[in-house]
């Protein structure tokens, strides 16, 4: 079976890392791929660097948009692929992967994918083990987060997965999906949020018939200091996080309500609880400000998912709850009441 990979690379102000990322693609031992580079309004030299690779290698394509964030950049890449789908000669099958532009692939990553798809009748592959790379030293260690439990290696159905896996199912760049799985089920990233991987990766997993989980080395996750997850915590970031958790909560609530299988319903319920908790943790710092993009009334139909410790005081008076919660440890430190 011939396999053609399309790799979507969202790019935003990563000039220090981009060449290593794109070199890891151009030097793949498996050569049958195209790379869709999505310049998300970069203000540094990232767009110029991306254009260099497009000029040198016809497998690279650059598209540009105004800055709209990671989820919209990935969606732009998906839309481009969808609109440029042509019949593939020789019986080849198209698969889609994601690579963030400050990370890089193992040089035999696509070959490993091709081998798996050739040997197993699956629509989706997940590389559960991720290598974390220190941005300064380049030292690599296994990342603390695994996509699936360590004992899960091989072919599984979605039902087998949810019976043993943790939530959320996340990290889009560890998944390689048959393009039909994505487009036939209209799977996209929730627009204008962060932490968008959870809903997307869960949708991939729930819609496939079989998934292959690999423990091979595939992806190198560079721990850059200014990334979304490791950047400075600001009020604006907390507002963005709260909105993101709210939108993901709405997504999983809709999935829960239309699901008939009780085991899948329970899995979606757990995702709802997880995102409701994350939402309330952020709201306690900012309150129900209009900047949130949603109100207490919008949350009300999903209040049942909010953990009990947040359901009363934090839900009704989030700033009071947050003040109480954070002033007590401060007072203990001030008066020397903390245990040594």
Q: In which order are the strands of the major sheet placed?
A: 3-2-1-4-10-6-11-9
- Give the CATH H-level superfamily of the largest domain: Spore Coat Polysaccharide Biosynthesis Protein SpsA, Chain A
Find the structural class using helix and strand composition.
Answer: alpha/beta
This entry's quaternary arrangement is single chain
Which band does the percent of strand residues land in? 15-25%
Write the topology of this structure.
Layout: E1 3-11, H1 18-26, E2 33-40, H2 46-56, E3 60-65, H3 70-83, E4 93-98, E5 104-105, H4 109-119, E6 124-127, E7 131-134, E8 140-142, E9 154-156, H5 158-162, E10 175-178, H6 179-184, H7 197-207, E11 211-214, E12 219-223, H8 235-258, H9 262-286, H10 296-299, H11 308-311, H12 313-316, H13 318-334
Parallel strand pairs: 1-2, 1-4, 2-3, 6-11, 7-12
Antiparallel strand pairs: 4-10, 5-12, 6-10, 7-8, 9-11
Helix pairs in contact: 1-2, 8-9, 9-13
Description:
- The chain has 340 residues and is of the alpha/beta class.
- It is built from 13 helices and twelve strands.
- It starts with a strand and ends in a 6-residue tail after the last helix.
- The mean pLDDT is 92.
Question: Concise description?
Answer:
The chain has 340 residues and is α/β, with parallel strands linked by helices. It has 13 helices and twelve strands.
């Amino acid at each position: 079976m011939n396999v053609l990979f399309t790799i979507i690379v969202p790019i935003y102000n990563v000039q220090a890392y981009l060449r290593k990322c794109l070199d890891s693609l151009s030097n793949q031992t498996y050569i049958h791929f195209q790379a869709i580079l999505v310049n998300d309004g970069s203000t540094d030299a990232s767009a110029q660097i991306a254009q260099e690779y497009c000029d040198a290698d016809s497998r690279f394509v650059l598209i540009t948009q105004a800055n709209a964030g990671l989820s919209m950049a990935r969606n732009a890449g998906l839309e481009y692929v969808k609109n440029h789908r042509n019949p593939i000669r020789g019986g080849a099958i198209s698969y889609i992967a994601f690579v963030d532009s400050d990370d890089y692939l193992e040089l035999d990553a696509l070959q490993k994918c091709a081998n798996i798809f050739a040997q197993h009748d699956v629509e989706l592959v997940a590389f559960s083990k991720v290598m974390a790379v220190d941005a300064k030293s380049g030292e690599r260690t296994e990342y603390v987060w695994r996509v699936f439990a360590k004992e899960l290696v091989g072919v599984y159905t979605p039902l087998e997965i949810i019976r043993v896996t943790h939530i959320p199912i996340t990290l889009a760049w560890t998944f390689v999906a048959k393009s039909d799985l994505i487009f036939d089920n209209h799977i996209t990233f929730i627009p204008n949020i962060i932490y968008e991987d959870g809903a997307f990766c869960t949708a991939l997993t729930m819609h496939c018939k079989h998934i292959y989980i690999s423990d091979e080395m595939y992806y190198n996750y560079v721990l850059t200091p200014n990334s979304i997850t490791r950047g400075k915590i600001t009020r604006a970031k907390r507002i963005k996080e709260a909105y993101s958790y709210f939108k993901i909560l709405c997504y999983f609530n809709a999935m829960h309500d239309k699901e008939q299988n009780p085991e899948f319903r329970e899995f979606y319920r757990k995702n709802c609880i997880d995102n409701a908790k994350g939402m309330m943790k952020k709201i306690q710092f900012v309150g129900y400000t209009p900047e949130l993009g949603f109100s207490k009334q919008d949350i009300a139909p999903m209040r049942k998912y909010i953990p009990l410790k947040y359901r009363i005081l934090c839900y009704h008076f989030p700033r009071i709850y947050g003040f109480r919660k954070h002033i007590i440890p401060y007072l203990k430190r001030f008066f020397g009441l903390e245990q040594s």
